[in-house]
Amino acid sequence: MTRYNIFQQPIGEPVANWQGAQLPRKTVITGWYCRLEPISVAAHSQDLYQALNQAEDDRDWTYLLAGPYSHLAEYQAYLAQLETLNDPLHYAIIDQRT
Fold first, then answer.
1. What pLDDT is stored for residue 35 in this prediction?
2. Rounded-to-integer distance, Cα 16 and Cα 55, Å
3. How far apart are CA 83 and CA 40, in angstroms?
4. Helix 41-52 and helix 72-84: axis angle, to 10°?
5. Which 8-state DSSP code applies to residue 85?
6. Would you say 60 and 53 are in contact if contact means Cβ atoms under 8 Å apart?
7. Quick one: which of 63, 60, 59 has its CA closest to 48?
8. CA dist., res. 95 & res. 98, Å (int)
């Protein structure tokens, strides 16, 4: 028997005793070439802000959810908000070689 949601889309059968999954933990994830670190204003804001402002224009901000920011303090305030989130988690990508 096919069930439908409120949009008349077919959905599967209910799963007995279903429980929600746990949220991922904020941990460092180390790979061969890079390391993912949970975003931290203290650890990452200056380097990220400097990297994002290397272009002559604001093109490096194009695909980010916010910005561009004219001042480091504004960017740090934004990162401080991201730092508190558990869903979604935000990470800084650190090159293992440099």
1. 97
2. 54
3. 6
4. 130
5. -
6. yes
7. 60
8. 6
Residue 66's domain comprises: 17-95
pLDDT at residue 93 greater than cutoff 80: yes
Pairing of strands 10-11, 91-95: unpaired
Sheet holding 34-38, edge to edge: 29-30, 34-38, 91-95
Distance (Å, whole) CA 95 – CA 62: 22
> Mean pLDDT across the stretch 13-32?
91
Q: How far apart are the first and last CA of the chain?
A: 57
Domain of 87: which CATH number? 3.40.630.30
Tell whether pTM > 0.85. no
pLDDT for 73-86, tens place per residue? 999 999 999 999 99
